[in-house]
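User: Fold this, then the next.

Assistant: Folding the first:
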Amino acid sequence: MRIELTKRGDYAVRAMLALAGAGESGRLTAPQIASLTRVPPSFLPQVMADLSRAGLVEGRVGRIGGYRLLRPAREITLLEVIETIEGSARRTSCVLRNGPCSVDGRCAAHDAFYVAQEALRESLGRATLASIVG
């Protein structure tokens, strides 16, 4: 079983963790984020724009510019960051048929995978940026 993020999701999580560990100022420039996270500098503005549109970060231009979290790191969950970029973490297709479950709404594995999916969502929903950064 594979659980993985797209590159965009991976980069978003890395950027958010960098901002969560930004220290007193709480603000990092795009080059600083790219350097700390090894996110390609050419791709970072796209990811940060997605996070900004979702209300997770604020970007400011100018001498005192950069990005900062809009809420404390203890209030932002990994699930929220991932779903901002990747969309809902809930499966919409059957794990056996890669399409909708049968007419009755369930395949033989439906309940087991549903429970596993919800456990993953619950775990990611409990993991805040602050708890990961330490």
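Now the next one, as you asked:
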Amino acid sequence: MNRVLAIIAVVAVIIPASRGGAQTTKPWELQGSRAGEEIAGPNGVKMVWVPAGEFTMGSARGRADEKPVHRVRISKGFWLSKTAVTIAQWRRYCHDSGTRFRVEVISPTDDYPMWGVNWDDVQGYCRFYGLALPTEAQWEYAARGPQGRTYPWGNQWDKKRCCNQDNTGPQGFNCPVGGYPNGASWCGAQDMAGNLSTWCADWYAETYYAHSPGVDPLGPKTGTRRVQRGGYFWSDADECRSARRSSDDPTNEDGSGSARPCFTPRGRRN
């Protein structure tokens, strides 16, 4: 009997020790080392590193809500989902969290982006995995980079680099995620033009840029609509620009918003 108790005591000491320290640190909780560095994030979502930096936000040639053009500094690097969350990943989230999968899926396979989810749905997904939605400024910075590109890949429109009205998916609609690697942004994020728009954290206001802070803007404190960024598969060249803004009712269950979570780490790698 004493021998059994001794074995139990040893196991009790060993098990907690194996769970502590650096072994419990998740890859996305540590800072990346270079733009485009890729890791495996929660729920199998690939994430890319977006280092801190400055960029020009907005467009003088765009719509009224894209003005005035202004400099923005993103003070902390962050991990951003390489693509939108897929249908398969959303199904797994629903299974693991006990959330009802309530969307009627019409996509032919589960590697398409999950859509028809409202802002509150996406917030639930992010909370479950300890993630967050990117701010509008983080999203545009990841899409344009320090060079302030018009499109994620550069300043010239190329319909073959994203899913758009002149280059739709196999059934005339959207496409599987990551289908256009040559359309990736400077940090390796894909599908930031065309395919499906993704939700951001901010409330939307048409005139927000007129008084937006120059460092880590968070959007208006209140509003009635939430920001969406990125084009759609029915978008033209203008609507696929990285500076283009859009918005929707955060409770809209029939919308076309998708999810591209992010995470801002505090820890540093040794």
